[in-house]
Please model this.
Amino acid sequence: MEAPGVFRSSAAFWVLMLLAVLLGVTTFVLPAYAQDVSLSIQQWSFFVDAAGERISGPGQHISIGLIGGLTPRLELDFSAVTMLTPKPGDSLLGAVSLGYSLLAERWINDRVPPNWVSMLAEIGFLGGGTELWAGGFSGATPKAQVFVRFTPLVLGNSFYRRRDRLLALGFAYDLLKQRGSFFFNFFAIDASLRR
Amino acid sequence: MKHSMRFVIFMMLMCYVAASAGMVYAAEPWHVGIVAGTEGFAAKGLDNGEYFRAGLLFDPFPQKGIQPAWFLGALVPVNPLDFSGSMLNIGIEFRYIASTAHSSFFVREWKYAPAVSAEMLIDPAGGRELGFVVSVQLVRFWFGESYMSFLGTELVLDSKGAVSGWGASLLRMTAFVH
Model:
């Protein structure tokens, strides 16, 4: 029996599956472990895939987002990624990722500080449109990627109300073109909104 | 000819700052910082990709009020990687460090420290006429032994002084080592 509608596309299927998993995790753990929210600013570098194409660019990219703590180790990150140079706003991508803190908890309680240094492993989804200058929202080139990312150096945490994530390397798989490419985040700055 | 004259004026300004710094050195410790950052341009003659900025900042004056400092280094296209597009730079900046220290937002205490700078871009291979970059770093902070600057804006001038485009410096860190 053939799957109807959107499920005929394996790309759309996997995106929906990933979103369902993220949503499921969120609703499962949030009531019990809701902790803190941080404002995040991050730099993105997208590298070419085997066909010589990038998710976006070449150019500088920046994201602004919110990170919510789900459990002492898990966090959920929602960000909007856009191009800064040479065409500001030419790309607009949404990123959602689920991260697991390695080496140390990201949060224990408001009296016990976690280890200052940690690492972060993430899975996520990156999707939206590029080439907005040429085609506007209706004529934008659609993008849909699932990704894994590893951040080897995370300094600080919610306890200290400030965290720096440095030198993250990610691999994104393009669901529309069935190709993979690497990306790099030189730095991310997270400022906790916790009082 | 005009270009040569600008270069001479620029070098005289550099010498002036160097001489001033030398005099201050007698009384104050010399401050040398390592500069690292990411940049991008939308300018004629410059690649559209990401550049990595690396260099040294010489900031010998006391960290208060308005003072000059100067810097040199390189801008290297890193994404896409193209060493042949690398540029050397030498420039002067005027920075202001506020007297009031704050403890909010960052873990460490900080002072607001905006800066304006002008630099000359030089092709190490000698084949390109590159020009100048004038930049304003309004979101810049002083942490006691380092500067952190976000979203600096840049005006790119060609070798004749005409505007050829613009640029942005997403992050520029300066960590003092001496």
About this structure: The longest strand of chain B covers residues 65-79. Residues 2-25 of chain B form the longest helix (24 residues).
